[in-house]
Design brief:
Mean pLDDT: 94
Structural class: alpha/beta
Largest sheet: 8 strands, mixed
CATH architecture: 3-Layer(aba) Sandwich
Low-confidence stretches: none
Distance between the termini: 42 Å
Helix content: 25-40%
Shape: globular
Order of helices and strands: EEEHEHEHEHHHEHEH
Length: 259
C-alpha cells in the first residue's frame, strides 16, 4: 500500500507503463467525490453505482503512466487539519507525491472537485502542468449554494475517527478557506483562468453540483480551452477516450513554428 508522509499520510496508486519517449508524460488523476475524493470513486459513486464514463486508471493506463491519489482524510489518506489549510495544502500533497516519484512535468485530469484541485496546480506550478482535463467541474451558483454546506458535513461525517480531536474551529476554517468566497470554481479566479497558457479540455457538467454554465464559462475564459458537452454514457465511450487521448497527445506537441 503506497503512502507518503508529507505532514500527512497520502495514499497513491501507480498504473500503466513507466513514462518514456514512447508513452508521453504521466497523468495525475484527482478523483470526484467532493472532499471524500478517493481513487475508487473513478469507478463508482458513493452509493456504489457504476460510473457512466470509462475508468481512467484502466483506460489511460493502457499507454501512459497514471498516478491516482486519495485526498487527505479520504480513502486511505490521513492528515491533521489546521486553521490555515486550504487549496494550497492539497496542491502541496499532489506535488509532494509527484516529487517522490521523480515526476516533473505531467498532465492532470480532475473530476468534480478534482477540477478545482487541478486548476490550483496550474496556478501553483505552471511550469510543471503540461495540460489539464477538467471533467464536470464544480462551481458556485445560487442554486447549489445550500448543497456546499451539506457536502462538507458529509465529508466530516464520513471521516470518522480521522478527525477525532480536531477542533471545530479548524474545521470551520477549512470550510471557509476552501469555499468561503462562494464564487466561480472556488480555487482560482476568473482573472487567473484568462491568463492560463496551458491547454485545457473541459468535459462539461450537467447537474446542480457540476453546473453547465460554469463549464462553459471556463472554456470561454481560458485562451487555449476546448469543451465537450456530450461525453457521458456507453454511447460516448469511444469518443470520450479518443478525445482525452488526442488532447493529451496534442498538448505535448511543440507550438507551431517550434518543431
Amino acid at each position: 500500500m503506497p503512502t507518503l508522509a508529507l505532514g500527512a499520510q497520502i495514499h497513491w496508486e501507480d498504473y500503466g507503463p513507466a513514462a518514456s519517449a514512447n508513452t508521453g508524460l504521466p497523468v495525475l488523476l484527482l478523483a470526484p467525490g467532493g472532499l471524500r475524493s478517493r481513487i475508487g470513486l473513478w469507478r463508482h459513486t458513493h452509493d456504489g453505482r457504476a460510473r457512466d464514463w470509462p475508468d481512467p486508471t484502466v483506460e489511460l493506463a493502457r499507454d501512459r503512466r497514471v498516478i491516482a491519489v486519495d485526498q487527505r482524510n479520504a480513502g486511505l489518506s490521513v492528515a491533521p487539519v489546521g486553521p490555515h489549510d486550504g487549496w494550497d495544502t492539497f496542491a502541496a500533497d499532489h506535488l509532494g507525491v509527484l516529487d517522490a516519484l521523480g515526476i516533473d512535468r505531467f498532465h492532470v485530469l480532475g473530476a468534480c472537485i478534482g477540477a478545482s484541485f487541478a486548476l490550483r496546480l496550474v496556478e501553483r506550478a505552471p511550469h510543471r502542468v503540461a495540460s489539464a482535463v477538467l471533467q464536470q467541474p464544480i462551481g458556485w451558483t445560487p442554486r447549489n449554494a445550500p448543497l456546499r454546506r451539506e457536502n462538507f458535513q458529509a465529508w466530516v461525517d464520513s471521516a470518522g475517527g480521522r478527525l477525532a480531536g480536531v477542533p471545530a474551529a479548524h474545521l470551520h476554517a477549512l470550510e471557509h478557506n476552501l469555499f468561503g468566497n462562494e464564487d466561480f470554481v472556488f480555487s482560482v479566479s476568473r482573472d487567473f483562468v484568462r491568463g492560463i497558457s496551458a491547454p485545457l479540455l473541459v468535459l462539461a457538467g450537467n447537474d446542480i453540483h457540476h453546473p453547465l454554465e460554469v463549464s462553459r464559462e471556463l472554456a470561454a475564459l481560458a485562451p487555449r480551452a476546448q469543451i465537450i458537452e456530450d461525453w457521458r454514457g456507453e454511447q460516448h465511450r469511444s469518443a470520450y477516450l479518443r478525445g482525452v487521448r488526442g488532447f493529451l497527445a496534442s498538448a505535448e506537441l511543440p507550438p507551431r513554428g517550434q518543431a
